[in-house]
Amino acid sequence: MVYRMQAVGRSHAKALAELHANCFAKGWNHLEFESFFERAGVFAGMAYGPDKKPVGFVLCWLIEDQCDLLSMGVLPEHRREGVGLVLLDYATHTARDMGAKAMTLEVNITNTAAQTLYQQQGFEKFSIRKDYYSHPDGSRADAVCMKKML
Ligand SMILES: CC(C)(COP(=O)(O)OP(=O)(O)OC[C@H]1O[C@@H](n2cnc3c(N)ncnc32)[C@H](O)[C@@H]1OP(=O)(O)O)[C@@H](O)C(=O)NCCC(=O)NCCS
Asked: Hey, which bits of 1-139 come out as E strands?
């Protein structure tokens, strides 16, 4: 299937929150997405299927020449169709066009799907943040910090 990317901003906060809630156990609401867009250097993109419905999103924050990938997700029913690759490609190209020399991200150590995707796309682990994530059941998990030179 062919997925197309579109740059999105504050006016898409509700659509982003809806996608986020369908991708993560602990969703970010639209007010949180609105507040991200108040920060200089924040950019986001949404992936759309042929029927023009959004199927995934990516949110990044460029600070000087470093870009942090804050979040990305693909609706469960559209996973393993290459959308994650499209989102990551959009994020890295946009960041590079904006002057980024590197992209960093944190990923839950238990999230093998995302780690496989990032590693396949050239991200390398450089540190671990202990107990960085809290799960809805109260348990905690480490974050793996990854980086890719752009
Ligand atoms: C991680 C995520 C974004 C991947 O999206 P996706 O659209 O399914 O990824 P793609 O189809 O582009 O996969 C590209 C490659 O990544 C790897 N990959 C993706 N999902 C995988 C899985 N569940 N297990 C193992 N490898 C996986 C594979 O190498 C895959 O290539 P292949 O399908 O040819 O084997 C998606 O699983 C997701 O939204 N998860 C929940 C939210 C999340 O974890 N976000 C990332 C952390 S911020």
From this structure: 4-8, 42-48, 54-63, 66-74, 102-108, 124-134
Its pTM surpasses 0.85: yes
User: Top-level CATH class of 4-149?
Assistant: alpha beta
Angstrom distances, CA of residue 36 to CA of 7, 44, 60, 70, 142: 15, 10, 9, 10, 24
> What is the per-residue pLDDT across 86-121, written as a single tens digit (0 to 9) for each?
999 999 999 999 999 999 999 999 999 999 999 999
SS3 108: strand
Side chain identity, residue 11: S
Going by alpha carbons, the residue nearest to atom 1 of ligand 1 is 114
Q: Does the pLDDT at position 136 exceed 90?
A: no
Query: Cα(138) to centroid of ligand 1, in Å?
Result: 25
pLDDT tens column, 47-79: 999 999 999 999 999 999 999 999 999 999 999
What is the pLDDT at residue 25? 85
- The pick from 48, 79, 119 for probing ligand 1's pocket by mutation, whose C-beta has the most ligand atoms within 8 angstroms, reads 79
